[in-house]
Amino acid sequence: MDDTASSAPTNPPSRRVERRRTLADILTQVGLPVLGIGLLGFAAWFVWTTRIVIGDPPPPVEPARNPFRRSLAAAGVVEARTENIAVGSTLSGIVVEVLVTVGEPVAPGTALFRLDDRELRGILAVKRAALDRSRSELTRQEAEPRQEQLPVLVAQVAEARALVDQTDDALARAREIFAQKVITEEGFVAKKDAAAAARAALDRAQANLDLLEAGSWQYDRDVTRARIAEAEAEVQRIESEIERLTVRALVNGQVLQVNVRPGEFVAVASGRPLVMLGDVERLHVRVDIDEYDIAAFDEHAPAVAMPRGNLQQRYPLQFVRVEPFVVPKKSLTGDTTERVDTRVLQVIYEFDPTGLPRLFVGQQVEVFLDRATAAEAGS
């Protein structure tokens, strides 16, 4: 056992080999950890700086400030004192001339635009010719008898009377000789018939003379007068139609909008205003009071309007009237068919724009009514 153990080879002791550190060793042992720490810091900084910040930014336009301690708020639209008058045409046709421009003042009777009237003027010329013909016919009837025709008929009567005398004389002689059996009965009858024919011719000539001397028949003149009245009424109707082709203003005001151009065809049932008029000396505000706030509305409460875009400017309002029919609320986009499921009471206020920043018809405003003052006045 001891011999075996003593005969086993023994390993020499290990020795650590020392070598110089290279640049690669330094980069691996020092650079990589430092780079990792730097990238970790950059990631933390990037995440922090790009995080979503939910803040409370200031509004782009300062909202309206309620001027009253307790108020009733509503939306309103500026309109003309006469309301916005949409002018159309009662007749269809081609527009040949537009006589006003936007912003131009108008008075009752001012021509706004004119339609083509050539066809109606042609019809008018025909109707006037028919009227002149009827008037001439009445003049002729009232001037009868014509003096130039009387001698002709008098001569015809004289001729017929002379023929009667001649036939009567021939008949008398024929009667005498027939009694003497000189002529036959047939000859006597012929003479008798000739005398009767001569008397009939005299009666006819005398009747024509009497008719001419009597002048026109009263009933014929009445018919002609009725025909004249009908022709005059027709002429007046056509003239009225021509006048209606020139559309005119009926109120004092200002042209707010012109939606028609020369050459356009205008239909009666177009549904769009061709010219918009309104009196803008004093403006109205149409306020929509929500149906839930109707109970709190008081017409005596002070009210102010603030235009959108300049909500710090106040326009004192004066109550005018309430339109007592609660209507569906219309969208303020201008489309009359677009509505929301809310009904509103429309209240009309008035204000004088003199000395205040200008407001335009159709502009939206915020309206506030003082409920506290109204409540104190009621108590």
What's the arrangement of secondary structure elements?
Elements: H1 2-7, H2 23-49, E1 71-80, E2 85-87, E3 93-98, E4 105-106, E5 111-115, H3 118-143, H4 150-179, H5 185-214, H6 218-244, E6 246-248, E7 253-258, E8 265-266, E9 275-278, E10 283-290, E11 303-307, E12 315-330, E13 339-351, E14 364-370, H7 371-378
Antiparallel strand pairs: 1-10, 1-14, 2-9, 3-5, 3-8, 4-7, 5-6, 7-9, 10-13, 11-12, 11-14, 12-13
Per the CATH scheme, the topology name of the largest domain is Elongation Factor Tu (Ef-tu), domain 3
Number of strands: 14
What is the helix fraction of residues, given as a range? 40-55%
Instruction: Count up the helices.
Output: 7
Rg to the nearest angstrom?
A: 56 Å
CATH superfamily grouping of the largest domain: Efflux pump adaptor protein, beta barrel domain
Domains (count): 3
Reading side by side through the largest sheet, how are the strands ordered?
1-10-13-12-11-14
Mean pLDDT: 83
Could you say which overall geometry the principal axes of the C-alpha atoms support? elongated
* Major pleated sheet: 6 strands, antiparallel, barrel
Examine the secondary-structure arrangement and name the CATH architecture of the largest domain: Beta Barrel
Please write the string of helix (H) and strand (E) elements: HHEEEEEHHHHEEEEEEEEEH
At the first level of CATH, what is the class of the largest domain? Mainly Beta
Tell me the fraction of residues in β-strands, as a range: 15-25%
